[in-house]
Amino acid sequence: MSVWTISSIILLVLIAIVGFLYYQGNKLQKKQAEQREQMAENSQNVTMLIIDKKKLPLKDSGLPPMVIEQAPKRYRRSKIPVVKVKMGPRIMNMMTDEEVYDQIPIKTEVRAQISGIYITGIKNYKNAPVPEPEKKGLLSKLSSKAMKASNEAAEERKAKQEKKAKKK
């Protein structure tokens, strides 16, 4: 076999792999956008007192066992942002987004949007000082940029669907 034949076979395999990953990425982005829309529909506004916030492994986070069992195995050892809050007489541990986690002030009463045990948004109506965010590494910067891009793409898709619905 010649060098050209081998290189063309390798090139075709690489193109097939990239195409498959592109297809799977689009599929996962659509799924994530649908999940975010469901969370936005099911969210409610609650006043809560923020006691503490930490990044902990899922198994050490103090979340209900049912939540830990439902999480994929690869996320059980990774650190997630956990916030300890007091809502009324109950003290609970809740999960949050990285972006929201940076905005949460400690030992302050805030108005938050929650969906189950997940904090989706925060309004600091007491204007408490927000602590300085920790320095982010390269991986976390890339993941936050990817999250912003996927959110923008989901909003654009939703706007296009609304335009199509209006035309009909």
CATH class assignment of the domain at 46-145: Mainly Beta
Outline the low-pLDDT stretches: none
What is the residue-averaged pLDDT? 86
* Strand line-up of the largest beta sheet: 1-2-3-5-4
Structural class: alpha+beta
Describe this structure in words.
- This protein is of the alpha+beta class.
- The chain has a domain at 46-145: OB fold (Dihydrolipoamide Acetyltransferase, E2P), CATH 2.40.50.
- Helix content is 48%, strand content 26%.
- The chain has four helices and five strands.
- A five-stranded mixed β-barrel has the order 1-2-3-5-4.
- It is extended.
- The N and C termini lie far apart (58 Å).
Name the descriptors.
168 residues, alpha+beta, OB fold (Dihydrolipoamide Acetyltransferase, E2P), 5-stranded mixed barrel, extended
Please summarize what this structure is.
The protein is an alpha+beta fold and 168 residues long.
Write the layout of secondary structure elements.
Blueprint: H1 3-41, E1 44-57, H2 65-70, E2 79-87, E3 90-96, H3 98-103, E4 108-115, E5 118-123, H4 138-167
Parallel strand pairs: 3-5
Antiparallel strand pairs: 1-2, 1-4, 2-3, 4-5
